[in-house]
UniProtKB/TrEMBL annotation, chains A, B:
Pfam families found in the cross-reference section: HTH_5
Keyword terms: DNA-binding, Transcription, Transcription regulation
Keyword Transport: no
One of the record's GO molecular function terms: DNA-binding transcription factor activity
Source organism: Streptomyces liangshanensis
InterPro entries the UniProt entry points to: ArsR-like_HTH, ArsR_HTH, HTH_ArsR_DNA-bd_dom, HTH_MetalResp_TranReg, WH-like_DNA-bd_sf, WH_DNA-bd_sf
Residue ranges annotated for the HTH arsR-type domain, each copy included: 26-123
Name the record gives this protein: Helix-turn-helix transcriptional regulator
Superkingdom, natural source: Bacteria
Length: 126, 126
């Protein structure tokens, strides 16, 4: 997987805004960028980590609170977090002993947008 | 990848409806189901195939119209289409010589929903 972090998806859409997977063919560059993010989401542990980070009151989670939720080693959890970060889904900040993670909602917003059918009603968030 | 086809995602959410990745921790079963679909989207060729199928006027595409758009063999394209179908993203029907593919919008709708922030405005489809 590329080390490059993803900031904006689909910036090269014909009209400069809001491409969607469902309304027009996808150019190779946008497809490669989007695939990187979807691939990061294509693992149950990473999805659970992302949900824990995104749903946390206060908006950030200490890695020390993430690791105990899984029957996995700290290096394995760190590797999954690194892939989420490389995909532009989360960011991290070290403070003292621990690293704290938070969601980058622009990326999930963009994925939700590209998966929304043109003219479809708003996705029903719980 | 599991051969199981995915019909409904996140059916086991606490309230029976509309779980989102971003509003609550994710149980292992839902994470596994969602990961299967995101993994299917984690490839540029599959994303481009899905976009071609989803955006086609009339709602379906002959495999004979998909293959020429890629510098890949027919068996490779068929393999990618099979993974999209196993993930519940597309369906297919054989008529005569050719197989025709169409989007299963319930699955993309569900993905858009789980990626939508609670309280966020509707995803801006192009």
């Amino acid at each position: 997987m590329s080390k490059q972090e993803l900031v904006v998806l689909g910036q090269d859409a014909a009209d400069g805004c809001c491409p969607t997977l469902l309304s027009a063919p996808l150019d190779e560059g946008t497809a490669a960028e989007l695939a990187l993010v979807f691939k990061a989401l294509g693992d149950p542990v990473r999805l659970r980590l992302l949900a824990m980070i995104a749903s946390r009151e206060g908006g950030e989670v200490c890695v020390c609170d993430l690791t105990p939720a899984f029957d996995l080693s700290q290096p394995t959890i760190s590797h999954h977090l690194k892939l989420l970060k490389q995909a532009g889904l989360i960011d991290s900040e070290r403070r003292g002993t621990w690293v704290y993670y938070r969601l980058l909602p622009d990326t999930t917003d963009r994925l939700a947008a590209v998966l929304t059918r043109p003219g479809a009603p708003a996705a029903p968030a719980a």
